[in-house]
Design goal:
Helix content: 40-55%
Order of helices and strands: HHEEEEHHEHH
CATH superfamily: SCP2 sterol-binding domain
Shape: globular
Distance between the termini: 43 Å
Oligomer: single chain
Strand order of the largest sheet: 3-2-1-4-5
Largest sheet: 5 strands, mixed
CATH topology: Nonspecific Lipid-transfer Protein, Chain A
Strand content: 15-25%
CATH class: Alpha Beta
């Protein structure tokens, strides 16, 4: 299913938002839903690295640092690796409607910087069975929230 592009008013609005709040919300959601999947404990090669997700058609760039307990949002940090695509392609990837390699070879998904790191993250996410995810325990929610608050200090 090919999704339509975002309407101009939505793209215009998103491009003017600061990047930290949506990055913090995304990091919180990932840490809650995926547990230890995207942590430095599970991916030691990513420890202390900053990964950016660049949503090209919106101008939104979300940066995350990989730490032992999960992802922490990083506002203006210089990324070690950047994964870029349009919003509709990221949505299609999340819904498993398109193969990431097909997007990559069609230049709709690009990776810059430390491509080994970007591939590690892409392959880790691609290997997750999202249908098998269950509601997280409250303790995981609290740990994920504490991690983001620690990132503010």
């Amino acid at each position: 299913m090919d999704l339509p592009p975002l309407p101009f008013p939505v793209r215009w609005l998103i491009a003017r938002l600061p990047s930290y709040p949506p990055a913090a919300a995304a990091a919180l959601a990932v840490n809650i839903c995926l547990g230890e999947t995207l942590t430095a404990k599970n991916l030691p090669a990513a420890r202390g690295k900053v990964i950016a997700i660049d949503v090209r058609d919106t101008g939104l760039k979300l940066a995350f640092e990989v730490e032992d307990d999960g992802l922490i949002a990083r506002g203006a940090a210089r990324p070690d690796a950047t994964i870029s695509a349009e919003a509709r392609d990221f949505v299609a990837l999340a819904r498993r409607e398109v193969d990431p390699d097909a997007l990559f070879f069609n230049r709709r998904l690009t990776m810059e910087g430390d491509t080994e790191l970007a591939l590690l993250v892409k392959n880790t996410l691609d290997g997750i069975d999202f249908r098998a995810l269950k509601l997280p325990p409250p303790s995981r929610v609290l740990r994920a929230l504490a991690l983001q608050l620690r990132g503010l200090l």
